[in-house]
Design brief:
200 residues; mainly alpha; Four Helix Bundle (Hemerythrin (Met), subunit A); two-stranded antiparallel sheet; 2 strands; 53% helix; globular
Length: 200
């Protein structure tokens, strides 16, 4: 699978510090974008069968906090217990929680993941061999409203697992931009498979 090969190759070339800073930058970009979103924009559903911005933010926050838990196990040389972080994980809070509470939760989850990565200073001192079962979602390069994503599981080491979190942030950043554009009638075009070759 091209996506998994990309993740493995890219992760192998990154130092812990380089990986951490890329995740920090992606999280900051998403936080900055979300800070521009109004309560009305967050609740609007421009596409009847798609998530709102509030639901996207809730999903990312819930995913990131679980990802930090799983990554902590990997860094300690253990396979994370329990089920994997599934692709549609949400808490339901998007239906009732204030928008400020949802955005605070997103920033808190980002801080937790970055803080964990700040504890990694020497890759050679980390245990090796532990993997986590990650659920990956790949959208067709020329996706339309009828295109079904590919969903599959893959076993990832800690650096690969961390890199996937960055790609996940980029994917949902683009999703929020598309949702905002749809509300204003602007056209926002991007490849749903962009995360296969994100900016370095």
């Amino acid at each position: 699978m091209q996506a998994v090969e990309y993740v493995r190759t890219r992760a192998a070339k990154l130092t812990p510090a380089g990986l951490r800073e890329r995740i920090r930058a992606a999280a900051q970009e998403l936080d900055n974008l979300v800070a521009e979103v109004t309560e009305a924009e967050a609740r609007a559903r421009p596409f009847p069968d798609k998530w709102t911005i509030a639901e996207v933010v809730d999903h990312v926050a819930q995913t990131q906090i679980r990802a930090a838990e799983e990554l902590r196990h990997l860094l300690e040389g253990r396979r994370p217990p329990g089920p994997p972080v599934y692709e549609a994980l949400r808490s339901g809070a998007a239906a009732w929680a204030p928008w400020t509470e949802l955005t605070d939760g997103l920033r808190s989850a980002h801080r937790e993941l970055v803080a964990l990565l700040e504890t990694v200073s020497d890759e050679s001192a980390l245990p090796t061999g532990a993997t986590a079962r990650a659920i990956l979602v790949i959208h067709p390069a020329k996706a339309d409203s009828h295109s079904a994503p590919q969903i599959f599981a893959s076993e990832l080491g800690w650096k690969e697992y961390a890199l996937v979190q960055r790609l996940h942030l980029i994917d949902h950043r683009n999703q929020i931009k598309k949702l905002r554009a749809a509300q204003t009638g602007r056209v926002y075009s991007y490849s749903d498979a962009q995360w296969l070759s994100p900016p370095t």
